[in-house]
Amino acid sequence: MPPREIKINIPEYVLDICKTIKKHGFKCYVVGGALRDQIIHPEVEPQEWDIATSALPDDIMKIFPKCIPTGIAHGTVTVIQKGRKVEVTTFRIESGYSDARHPDSVTFVAQIEKDLGRRDFTINAMAYDPLDGIFVDPYGGMDDLSLRLIKAVGDPLSRFREDGLRPLRAARFATVLGFRIENNTFDAMKKAIGSFLMVSSERKRDEIIKMMDAEKPSHGWEILRKAGYIDAIFPEMKRMIGAKGGDRHKYDVWNHSIMACDFCRGKWQVKFACLFHDIGKPFVEVSENDSGSQKFYGHEKTGADIVGRWMERMRFSNEDIKLIKRLIAEHMVIYSPEWTDSAIRRFIRRVGRDIIDDLFKIVEADIKATGDVGTSISLLNELKSRVYNELKERPPLTIKDLAIGGLEIMKEFGLEQGPEIGMILRELLEKVIEDPSLNRRETLLKIAREIKEKNR
Known about the structure:
By secondary structure, the protein is α+β, with helices and mostly antiparallel strands. It folds into four domains: 4-147, Beta Polymerase, domain 2 (2-Layer Sandwich), CATH 3.30.460.10; 152-233, Hydrophobic Seed Protein (Orthogonal Bundle), CATH 1.10.110.30; 265-395, no CATH class; 399-454. Helix content is 49%, strand content 11%.
């Protein structure tokens, strides 16, 4: 497809870099995801921009006083312009990918068209000269944007074997953009699992996180299921497919879970917990209660452990692992209007004030994905109202919230530090959770004396 003129909004600091490069006699183009996203959403300015140029890395280092040789062996220099970082990479071709990730050799070239030929998908293989207004699109990326299509550049199987992460990137782009994957590209995905298995856990993790930020992550997970990648990503997750979810569920665990994930409105960690909230069901024994309903006792704890172990293998941060495990472990919220106010306070204490909002998002999405909302949403809304009303009163929920501490108890009763102090504080907390009006210094000292005498 021959170059054509087009107008795309490019920020001033990127234009300044392009002007400087061209002033020194080199070609330069804006390329990559920022160009793609600016075409799709011209009203939103991308945060990261990439430039491809005929200038060699040494040329760029000489031209720009502020730059970092971030990947100079592969032709990349990061130029700092007006406090913003822009990656500037020399036109190049690559060959040999023995590790299914990095090229064994890189050759710098003079033509942008050759550089675009090494890229993954047509929508990422476009280039724009913002000074002359020339748009270079040799593989029909603009047409594929119009068709909402993810299509590999050239031979799709070759592209996937060059970098084993590309099948997951295809699923991620399709999910985030709401596109479908072109048939030949999808067929090649099925044949590239061997290359995918060579990819590091960290790179897979990062793509999955980006996919989970999409409006409907289910689209990506369905692509991966149909292409045969679930076992290669998270073997335990495969057990969800076709597994019964219980009497209240119209769908199997897999479909229920990906639907719940779509309903969930929160940060990626919350969507993640929602996606895996029922993963423990296929791993626990199914029981029936007195009314004959199926119960999956302990599936929430089992699921939290399964997901935690997988997240460790995938090198997620300890903070994210802890949060997601807590949300999965606490998702079985069974509320009754008969709950007393103290029961509400105990619920808040058990779950933790810090994750209450996130947990409610998961519970609501879980209910919606059962296919039978009914009175469950009304009960959830009642619980949320009572919880938030309690939190407005700032009730004592932890030992730190008590009007006295361990040192005061030690001083008042002449005790040394030891388990008795902790026991007294825990009993005091139970008293004030039952009746917050008791949380006064003199009152608590009196109760503490009674506790001490009782346990003498």
